[in-house]
Write a structure and sequence with these properties.
The strands form 2 sheets. A 7-stranded mixed β-sheet has the order 3-2-1-4-5-9-8, sandwiched between helices. Helix 2 packs across helix 9. The protein has a single domain, classed as Rossmann fold (3-Layer(aba) Sandwich), CATH 3.40.50. It starts with a helix and ends in an 8-residue tail after the last strand. The chain has 9 helices and 9 strands. The chain is α/β, with parallel strands linked by helices and about 260 residues long. The structure holds S-adenosylmethionine (SAM). The site of S-adenosylmethionine has 20 residues, from helix 1 and helix 3.
């Protein structure tokens, strides 16, 4: 059986032992970086709001594979008051606690979370499932511990990914297959677990590569002009989102979802 978890954990512990300053981009208010980094999360939250039809800020949030807590900080900055960041790297969680004292942390393996069913209202992963030896198992765990909704931000499968994307990612001795999602794989994992339970699924495919876009637009000085250029590039790419490299998957569980406190 493929289980690199210990080797991967060692590799990530190493990465997260670096200076905390390395992760300052999670905290910067620079409008360009905020736009580039938070764009997918805003789209996902809009989808949860739309599918549930009510304000969602009172929901408890669990971040899976949350690293040093960048996404968790996003939720805390957007009105969520009960936000827990989890990862299997204690070093990452130590940085998280120093960075943002508003956040709770918990050391968890995403493939086997030591949590009761339905422990958190909203369970979120960004760029984490594709690091797992068994990404579908990770999604099954998220669905299990989510009382109301799940958000998945991961790479989307497709010909561009096949042509130029990384297929095998290596961290030291640990190798993992880079699993990419699409509407059908997301839907099938959900339905095979939740069967005929009432639920809503929303999938958005789009182009998103914040490091490349940032490099390109920073040539314009990094200020308002760069921000305008970044927005313009993504607007120009919108008609081609059907071939995009990124996947936003949202599951809302009904009818006991969100509308009841
Ligand atoms: C690419 S980083 C993404 C971090 C963060 N979500 C972000 O986008 O900035 C992947 C994260 O997944 C974590 N991770 C990998 N395998 C894991 C596992 N089995 N259980 C929990 N966390 C894991 C790593 O420690 C790392 O923090």
């Amino acid at each position: 059986m493929n289980d690199n978890t210990q080797e991967q954990r060692d590799a990530f512990e190493q990465i997260f032992s670096a200076e905390a300053a390395r992760w300052h981009f999670h905290d910067t208010k620079d409008p360009l970086i905020r736009y580039l980094r938070d764009r997918r999360l805003h789209l996902a939250l809009d989808a949860v709001r739309e599918l549930s039809g009510v304000p969602i800020e009172s929901l408890s949030v669990l971040l899976v594979c949350g690293g040093v807590g960048g996404e968790a900080t996003f939720f805390a900055n957007h009105g969520f008051t009960d936000v827990t960041n989890t990862d299997f790297s204690q070093n990452a969680l130590n940085v998280c606690e120093r960075r943002d004292p508003r956040l709770k942390t918990r050391l968890l393996n995403a493939e086997a979370m030591d949590l009761e069913d339905g422990s958190y209202d909203l369970v979120v992963v960004q760029d984490g499932l594709h690091h797992l030896p068994r990404p579908a198992l990770g999604l099954n765990e998220m669905i299990r511990v989510a009382r109301k909704a799940v958000i998945v931000l991961e790479p989307h499968t497709g010909f561009v990914a096949k042509a130029i994307g990384t297929e095998w990612e290596r961290h030291g001795d640990a190798v993992n297959f880079v699993f990419r999602w699409n509407r059908e794989s997301f839907r099938q994992v959900i339905l095979s677990q939740l069967l005929e339970a009432p639920l809503s699924i929303r999938v958005i495919r789009l182009w998103d590569h914040n490091s490349v876009i940032r490099k390109v637009v920073s040539k314009l000085g990094g200020g308002a002009l760069s921000l305008f250029a970044a927005k313009a590039i993504y607007a120009l790419l919108t008609p081609f989102n059907g071939m995009g490299n990124n996947f936003i998957g949202v599951l809302v569980k009904h009818p006991d979802a969100i509308s009841k406190p």
